[in-house]
C-alpha cells in the first residue's frame, strides 16, 4: 500500500557545466534577452533546492568543505522538462496504427485502460512510465490515470517513492464509454475527493480533477467536477478541448445550449487558474480571449496532433502579446509518439513552420521548461535555474549521436546548440536527470542512479 511521505532529501551537491535558463518569457520579450546562458556555471544544491547559481569562478568559495564537484563537460544544464499533458496508462499502446481520435479511443485506448482495474498492472506500468519520463529529462508532468481509483494510488505511490513533483488524477467518465470504464457522477465525485484527501499536497504530489472530455461526462458529472475544485485549495483541472473536427461536431450535438466547446467547461466552473486544456487545435479568437481572462492553460501536443491527423495548434495566435494565453507542451502519449520533450519540440517547430511561423530555440526550450511550469502555476518552484527553486534538473548532451556531434562542431551560438538538441535530440541526449537534488537517471552509469528508480 502507500508509503509515508518522503522526509525530504538532504544531500548537498555541486554541479558544474554550461547552463541555460530564463529570466523572461521569450514570446513576450526578445528571445536573446529572455534566455540566460552561463558558459561555466555552478549549481549548488542543498536540501533539495538550488542554493547558489551563477559563474563557477565567482561562486566556488561557497561550496561547503568536502563536497565534490560533479562536472559535465560538453553538456548543457537545464531545469527539468515539464510535460503538461500525458496519459500514463496508454504507455503500453503507444504507436497504435491507423485511426483518428474517436475510433482510436474505441479500438485501442479503452481496452488498454480497462486493464488498470488490476492494481499490480497499474503499479508496473506507473513504474515503467516514470522511469521513461526521467530518462527523457522530464521531472514534472500533468498525468491522466484511468477511471479506476487504484490507478491513481499506483501512480502517486511510485511518484512519492521517487519524490517527483507530479500532477495527476482519476479520469471521470460516466457515459459514452464501455461498461467497465464508466463511473457515475456521484461515485466519481466521492472517489476523487477521497483521492484528493489521500494525495493532494502530500510531499510533492498534486491532484488534478480529470474529466476525460465533454463527450464522456454528463452535465451532472461536469458540474460535480466544478464543485470538487471548490472543495480544497490549489487543485488542478485537466481535460481535452477541441482536438478533432468529428469530436467537436459530437460535442455540439451533446451540448446544443452552449456557445462553444470551451463554454461547456466554463459553464461547469472548470476554466480558471490551474486548468489545463489539452490540444485546443480548433479554437477561435473568442476562446483565446476567454482563456487569457480565465488564466487557464493550453497544452500543445504536436506529436499527437500529427500522429492522429488532428490539425495544427496555432501557437503564435495563442501567445499573442495582446492577450497571451499560458501554453505548455504535452507529449500526450499514447497518441503522442515520444515521451521526449525534445521530440515534441522537433514537431512543434515543424507545425509552426507549416503555419508560416518560426519557433525560436529559446521559445521552444521555454515551452518545455519555464513556460510549462508557468502554465501549471508552479513557476515559483520549478522550471528555471535560480536560488530557491526545487532542484529538478536535466543534463543535456548536444553530441549524443555521431550526427549530432558533427553538426555541433559547426555550432557558433547557444541558440544554434539548442536548435540541434531540439531537432536531432531524444532520450539519448539526456545525460542525467536530478529530482529534488537526487540523481535519478545517469545515462552512462545506470547502476549509480537513485535506488528508488531501479526495478525491484
Ligand atoms: Zn490526451
From TrEMBL:
BP-aspect Gene Ontology terms: guanine catabolic process
Classification via SUPFAM superfamilies: Composite domain of metallo-dependent hydrolases, Metallo-dependent hydrolases
Enzyme class: hydrolase
The protein's required cofactors: Zn(2+)
Annotated ranges, domain Amidohydrolase-related: 77-440
EC numbers: 3.5.4.3
GO CC annotation, single: cytosol
UniProt keyword Lipid metabolism, yes or no: no
Pathway the protein contributes to: Purine metabolism; guanine degradation; xanthine from guanine: step 1/1
Keywords, comma-separated and alphabetical: Hydrolase, Metal-binding, Zinc
Cofactor comment: Binds 1 zinc ion per subunit.
Catalysed reactions, semicolon-separated: guanine + H2O + H(+) = xanthine + NH4(+)
GO molecular function: guanine deaminase activity; zinc ion binding
Pfam families for the chain: Amidohydro_1
Protein family (similarity comment): Belongs to the metallo-dependent hydrolases superfamily. ATZ/TRZ family.
Its job: Catalyzes the hydrolytic deamination of guanine, producing xanthine and ammonia.
Protein name, as recorded: Guanine deaminase
Organism of origin: Gluconacetobacter tumulisoli
Encoding gene, per UniProt annotation: guaD
Amino acid at each position: 500500500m502507500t508509503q509515508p511521505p518522503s522526509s525530504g532529501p538532504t544531500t548537498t551537491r555541486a554541479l558544474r557545466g554550461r547552463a541555460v535558463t530564463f529570466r523572461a518569457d521569450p514570446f513576450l520579450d526578445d528571445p536573446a534577452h529572455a534566455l540566460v546562458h552561463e558558459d561555466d556555471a555552478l549549481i549548488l544544491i542543498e536540501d533539495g533546492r538550488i542554493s547558489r547559481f551563477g559563474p563557477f569562478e565567482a561562486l566556488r568559495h561557497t561550496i561547503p568543505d568536502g563536497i565534490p564537484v560533479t562536472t559535465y563537460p560538453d553538456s548543457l544544464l537545464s531545469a527539468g522538462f515539464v510535460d503538461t499533458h500525458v496519459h500514463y496508462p496508454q504507455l503500453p499502446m503507444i504507436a497504435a496504427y491507423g485511426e483518428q481520435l474517436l475510433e482510436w479511443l474505441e479500438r485501442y485506448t479503452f481496452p488498454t485502460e480497462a486493464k488498470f482495474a488490476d492494481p499490480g498492472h497499474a503499479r508496473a506500468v506507473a513504474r515503467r512510465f516514470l522511469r521513461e519520463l526521467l530518462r527523457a529529462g522530464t521531472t514534472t508532468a500533468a498525468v491522466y490515470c484511468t477511471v479506476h481509483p487504484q490507478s491513481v494510488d499506483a501512480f502517486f505511490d511510485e511518484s512519492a517513492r521517487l519524490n517527483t513533483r507530479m500532477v495527476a488524477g482519476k479520469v471521470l467518465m460516466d457515459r459514452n464509454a464501455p461498461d467497465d470504464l464508466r463511473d457515475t457522477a456521484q461515485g466519481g465525485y466521492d472517489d476523487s475527493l477521497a483521492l484528493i484527501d489521500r494525495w493532494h499536497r502530500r510531499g510533492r504530489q498534486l491532484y488534478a480533477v480529470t474529466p476525460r472530455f465533454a463527450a464522456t461526462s454528463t452535465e451532472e458529472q461536469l458540474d460535480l467536477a466544478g464543485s470538487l475544485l471548490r472543495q480544497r485549495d490549489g487543485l488542478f483541472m485537466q481535460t481535452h478541448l477541441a482536438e478533432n473536427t468529428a469530436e467537436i461536431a459530437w460535442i455540439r450535438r451533446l451540448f446544443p445550449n452552449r456557445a462553444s466547446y470551451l463554454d461547456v467547461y466554463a459553464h461547469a466552473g472548470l476554466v480558471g487558474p490551474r486548468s489545463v486544456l489539452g490540444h485546443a487545435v480548433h479554437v477561435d479568437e473568442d476562446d483565446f480571449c476567454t482563456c487569457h481572462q480565465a488564466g487557464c492553460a493550453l497544452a500543445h501536443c504536436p506529436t499527437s496532433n500529427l500522429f492522429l491527423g488532428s490539425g495544427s495548434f496555432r501557437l503564435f495566435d495563442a501567445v499573442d502579446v495582446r492577450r497571451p494565453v499560458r501554453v505548455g507542451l504535452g507529449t500526450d502519449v499514447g497518441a503522442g509518439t515520444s515521451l521526449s520533450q525534445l521530440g515534441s519540440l522537433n514537431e512543434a517547430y515543424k507545425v509552426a513552420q507549416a503555419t508560416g511561423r518560426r519557433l525560436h530555440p529559446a521559445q521552444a526550450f521555454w515551452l518545455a521548461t519555464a513556460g510549462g511550469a508557468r502554465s501549471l502555476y508552479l513557476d515559483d518552484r520549478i522550471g528555471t535555474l535560480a536560488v530557491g527553486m526545487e532542484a529538478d534538473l536535466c543534463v543535456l548532451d548536444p553530441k549524443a549521436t555521431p550526427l549530432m556531434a558533427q553538426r555541433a562542431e559547426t555550432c557558433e551560438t547557444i541558440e544554434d546548440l539548442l536548435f540541434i538538441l531540439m531537432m536531432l535530440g531524444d532520450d539519448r541526449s539526456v545525460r542525467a536527470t536530478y529530482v529534488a537534488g537526487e540523481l535519478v537517471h545517469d545515462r552512462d552509469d545506470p547502476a549509480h542512479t537513485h535506488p528508488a528508480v531501479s526495478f525491484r
